[in-house]
Design brief:
It is built from 9 helices and 10 strands. It is of the alpha/beta class. It has 2 domains: about 210 residues, Rossmann fold (3-Layer(aba) Sandwich); about 100 residues, 3-Layer(aba) Sandwich (Rossmann fold). Helix 2 packs parallel to helix 3. Bound molecules: pyridoxal-5'-phosphate. The site of pyridoxal-5'-phosphate (PLP) has 19 residues, from helix 2 and helix 6.
Amino acid sequence: MPVITDPQEFHVDDVFVDLRFLGPHPLFLKCEAFNFAGSVKLRPAEEMVAAAERSGRLRPGSVLIESSSGNLGVALAMIAASRGYRFVCVADPRCNPVTRRIMEALGADVHVVTEPDPVGGFVGARIAYVRGLCAGDDRYVWLDQYTNEANWLAHYHQTAPAIAKSFPAVDVVFVGAGTTGTLMGCARYFRENRPEVRIVAVDAHGSVTFGGPAGPRLIPGLGMGVRPPLLDESLIDDVRVVSEAETIRTCRRLAGHGFLFGGSTGTVVSGALQWLAERDRRSELVAVAIAPDLGERYLDSVYGLPGGERRGQVGQHGMLDDLGRRQLAVEAHREPDRGE
Ligand SMILES: Cc1ncc(COP(=O)(O)O)c(C=O)c1O
C-alpha cells in the first residue's frame, strides 16, 4: 500500500496494454499517465529539479521557469507547489486550455506566446521569451528541458529499465520524439544493456527533428520546430513520421476499445503499427511502445472533431481554433495514409 507525503513520490511502472486487438503483432503499450501529474513528464521534472537542488542553483526564493507545451508544466507546477517554489510556465497556443487551468490551480503563472518565431516556430518563440525573463531577474532558474541531461537520464534510470524488467524478451521499442528525452534515455539504456533491442523513433509530420520540412502541427507533445539538442541519431535504428490525421484515427480506434489516450500515444501507436506491418510480416517480434498521457486533456482537439464538435467554440487561449479543427476533421476522414 503506497502511503505518500509528496505527490511526486507515486509512480506506476508496470501497466502495459496488450494492443493485439488492433492487429496481429505482439505490441504492448506502456502507460505513463498514472501519477499525480498525469504524464510521463513527471519523471524528467523530478530528476531536473533534484539535480538543480543538488547543484545549489535552485534554492529557497528561486523562481522556476520553463518552456512547455503543457505536460512538463503540469509536473513542474506540482513539484513547485510541493517544494515551495514559484513557477512560471511559458506555453504557446497549442497548450490545451484544461492543461493551463491545471497549472494555474497548482499555483503556477502561465504566460502564452502568441506568435511563432519565423525560424524556430513556437518552441523558438517560447525559448526567446524565457531568455528575456531570465535576463531581467536572477531569481529565475530555467531548467531547460531541451538541453538538460537530467531529462534523458530520468528515462535511462526509470522508463527503460521498467520496460526491460517487464519484457525481458522485447525486440523493439517505439518512442515518440519531442525534446527526445524519452527517446535518448531509452536508446542509451538499451544500447548499453540490451544492444540487440531496436529503437524506433516516432515523430509528427511537420517536425524538423529528423530532417523533414517544417509544417503546422496542432497536437502538442511530439515534434519540434528546431532540431532537439539532446538528439543523437546514431543511437536510433529507424524513424517513422505520422500525420496528425492518422494520429487522430488511431486515438479513436483505441477509444473504441475503451482506452482514451492522449494525442502523442496515437502517433506512437500509428508509427509502431506501420513499422511492424512492413518489417515483421510474421508477427514474431515482441514490441513495446510508450504512451505518454491520457485523453482527457485532448477532448476539444483529438476527440472534439465531427461527432463531438461544438461549432463556433474557439479554444479559450487560441489553441485549435475552428479552422485548425476543420482542417484536422477533413484530413481525419480521408483514407488512411500509408507508407509515411
Ligand atoms: C504528451 C506528450 N507526448 C510526448 C512527449 C515527448 O516527450 P520527450 O520530450 O521526452 O521527447 C511529451 C513531452 O512533453 C508530451 O507531453
